[in-house]
Design brief:
Length: 284
Amino acid sequence: MRRSVLRPLARGSAALRFSARAALPFLGAGLMAGSAGCWAAGSLVLMDAPPQVASWSGGATAHSWPSAPGSRSRSDDLLPALEYLSPSGAFVSTDLGVGWNLVPLLASADAARTWQAGARLWPQFGRPSRFTPNGIDRLGPRVTTEAFANLQATPWLLLQSGLSWGSARHHDGQLLELGATSGVPLGDDLIAITLAATAANGAHLRSSYGVGPGESAASGLPEWHPRAGMMDWSVALSGEHKFSERWSVSGQWLNARLVGDAARSPLTTAKSQQSFSASLWYRF
């Protein structure tokens, strides 16, 4: 997500402004605009160090994602995109949510080139009524809180982590995602490659993939009571191309593979959860 985020999902305008010669060349987009990648992977934050001066960007993002957790159906949209980045580490972004990278305040601007750590608010959609089987309770949208920490381990390896809470039907869900990002040079640009894995507590898995006794009786589906554990592993490819100092285009493809109780749920019709985004950006 992402990353920046993944939403990821993960465009990650903050994450993808790099060149093959830059000190942080591989920071790819980890999150997509909206919350397209939040059901399976895509919650990692990938971002560059805060800018020296405040930065505003705007544009449009097209993305496609699974319509519900474990769903084979897909949803597509085209939405405006906006991002504000502050030298202090604060950000407001359709890619990253609303949050603060605290390293510039707690350490220094130089330290922010190696570490990113802070918190953010991020929306997470659930299972809309039109994609909910008859007899299964609808899962509405939530706003989650995520604490993130990234380490630039080597010039070509970024280690990422994100711990979020506030998901699930009663806002008691928790997710832990760990990942690593590197990059492959392509001329003056890079293709970022992210590998990640996500674990969830029982509350999150039961809300997204569980079938209670009442739901089983009403829907005809067997009861399913997921336990805490691994939810998915994922791979993402991200990239950006700059046409000029102000105009750029970026995109990400993410494939999350459900595992464990999430994969075996009677609500899951597709174990492979793929998301895609493409964005056109203008930096003011």
